[in-house]
Amino acid sequence: MQKKKRVMSKALKVMAAGTIVFSSLGAIPFNTLAADVTATQVANDQVTIQNGVKAVYSQILNKSPYQGKIIGTANVEKPFSENFGSNEPFPGLGNQNYSIFKEGFVVIPVSGQYFFSAQADDQTTVTINETDRLSTTAYNQVAEKRFGHFHGGDVVAITQIMDQFIGVASMSLKWNMPNLVLSNPDGRRLDVPLSNTYPTREQAEQAALEMKKHGVLTEYYDGTTTTVFKGQAVEPESFTKHYGTFEPYPGLGSDYYTVKKTGYIYISETGNYRFEGGGDDIYSLAIDGKEIIKNLNFPNYAQTGNIYLEKGVTIKIEQTVANNQNIGYSSLKWTTPSQSTFSDIQVTDVYESKEKALASNEDLSFEEANAAVNNLFTNKDPNGNITSTTTQADIDAAQALINKVTDQTKKEELQAKLNKAQSQLDAKTAQAEAENKAREAVNNLFTNKDPNSNITNTMTQADIDAAQALINKVTDPTKKAALQTDLNKAQSQLDAKTTQAEAENKAREAVNNLFTNKNPNGNITGTMTQADIDAAQVLINKVTDPTKKAALQADLNKAQSQLDAKTAQAEAENKAREAVNNLFTNKNPNGNITGTMTQADIDAAQALINKVTDPTKKAALQADLNKAQSQLDAKAAQVEAENKAREAVNSLFTNKDPNGNITGTMTQADIDAAQALINKVTDPTKKAALQKDLDKAKAQFASNGTLKPDDFVLGTTTITGSYSGDVDRITLSKDGVESGNATKTNGTFRFYVGPGIKKDQSLYMVAYDKNGREIAREKVNIAAVTAGQITPTAMTIPGDANISGTYTGDVSRIEVSITNEAGTTQVYKGGTVGNGTFKFYSFDKTKSPKDIIVVRAYDSVGKLLDTKTVTIKNNVVTTAGQVTPTAMTIPGNSSLTGTVSGDVAAIKVTVNGTVYAGGSIASDGTFRFYTLDKIKKADDTVTIAVYDKAGKLLDTKPVTIQAPTK
């Protein structure tokens, strides 16, 4: 290892000069890198991350002898365990033949025995504290080792190297240790967590130092009744802990031991507390020397009643658990004044000594009092002003907290700050009284004492002057301004009240002058203008009395209505004439309508004519509008005829595209209907275009053809038949789904359907012409399926002269095979079959009771329906046997192998429902069956069956198929 470090250091020092190639180094640890490699390297090492590892990425140039090239280094925020897959882990590293080195410093989270396991793809080496090692040499290996005891807060240096040669890559480092929660840790392999892993020892030690601020004093004893002291340790953990079957302390063993934990808790809030404890096997709990749970046996838990504790006290908790055997654990939970449900006492609440608990919390009284004083001031700054919400009660509460501070210097400092707050509050109270008196005087000037309403009817100038004197005593500029604003409102209303009568008189005179004889109940004068009305409105707006103002406004509205009606009629006539003229070219009602005119334009003009009241002018306007309507109706009729014809023609084609093919459902009636609509079109150009598209449809529709599929026999894979006419291609519709194309040859076709057609499926052959139009569709008839069984009668040989029996179904003929003791088989055809029975003369063919006679039944076309062996009554031989197939790797193995026993004489293999006979059986009981052309995939379903020499089935087994491993 030292040699590797020296060579590695030299290689890194020359990195800036070019590519570094090193040989015979093996794995390269990160912590051997030279400090002066390159500026880039130094910058990389200075990258600051909270948690993670240091990593070196190297290419493997040669494995034997080892040669490698460093690609880069990095501080990465990742744990040791990492799955790279087939990705490139680092820029320029590639995705095969590389090595990754990780170094990290791990803070041990809990005291106890630790078990590490490592694995990688393809191989890994793990070093712990530079001495203990784990290593693997293949991707499917796992290296495991128990590393003894670690203490909570220990810093462990770990390095891990992963070498990858081909395929996917990963590296894994897991550990198993006791739990600080009530969960059995046995067998739990967890990744070494990122949160406990640091790239530098300094970071890890800082985290460990923070961790050790809290904890308990733990004593370990051998035995459960008569105990022998084994040792003690301050451990950064609380009272709840699950040891599983781990050894809690070196040399203690994993059963018949006692663990005592002592810790101190500083009480931070006054109130009732409750405790719940229990353990495996015997549990006791004492608080401040008083045993409150004693010798509680597993699996019970006990809860205490309420224990009243005051803030600032420190309590001592002693917990003892004795474990007889198997797993061991302890649990201690509590409730607090602010937490009503039981929960584990956290390690941050516990100290190993009373002195440490007090020292850690001795400043709480001062801090609490200081916070209370600061909260009295804006931005919590005692050099500023008190907050707007500070009350005497707040000051009194802060005073009570100051009284508890024992440090006289700090107490005087707090008292000085509090005195500032008291002085400001007193001044604030005096000012508030002056403000209240001024506010009361101002509010009394208004109805309901609301400055946003009107002044009272009895208010005088003397009342305003008295309120002004009180406002002058207010010092707060904002509040003084608000009071002055409200007083100014009162002054303004008082001033306005004296001038209102004058405003009302002027407004009345102006309104009356708008009418003849100054009578608002009559008609307006002949010379009145809108300017006269506007001037009167200005005067009315100055009137504040709502009743008088409403009466004036009503009379003014009469004048406005009469003036509006007088001018409205001329405007209506002008708008109607303009709208009608705009319908015509050059705005001439004696000409033609414009090319853009619509029915909406006519309707709009009609609406304007309807507003004209002069009968003569209205009639002239209506006559011109009628001319426009007549011309628009004629124009719309022709457009409609063209649109209907175009729609009819387009609908003959797929996707309504006349440049494509006609639809499969088009009929002659559709063509005739489209022709009739074209005949109504008068525009010669549009008519010719429509006729041209219709002629395309007619030409396509003229094609025809026939199909005649042959009957399809179940079990076959091809549909055949013949065709004639304009058939361009033939497809198959199976259960409504159309696919594929048949092979056509000189009026015949063949369509491969493959295996698996069932008799209840719907099959149609569909023919299309060259335009893609369906011209024929014929159902494929599925031929009847034959089936049948035979039951031969048992024979006595010698004795019986005939082989006989019964049959059912479609049996048409039989065939007999006879195998003698020498193994020679003769096959005979013949016999009689009819009316449910069969007979075959065999007297001259079988002489020995040990002959094996097999009868086979066939249908009329030679299909084998059934096979049975004839029982020889005077030669009943019992046979038995078993088969044990060897698992196969597909692709890979070309033959199925295994062993047979007993009377096995023949083998059959079934692959995905297809049965194959054959194979060979050796004298030593092994067999081989060639399957390269039969078993194709790892998910094929394969079984093997074995038979005796008479064809009797002896055993059937499934064959295990597995994909190749890496």
TrEMBL record:
Residues 1-34 form the signal peptide. This is PA14 domain-containing protein. Residues 404-440, 480-507, 549-578, 618-645 form a coiled coil. Pfam families: Big_15, Endotoxin_C2, PA14. Residues 211-349 form the PA14 domain. Keywords: Coiled coil, Signal. Transmembrane segments: none annotated. It comes from Listeria booriae.
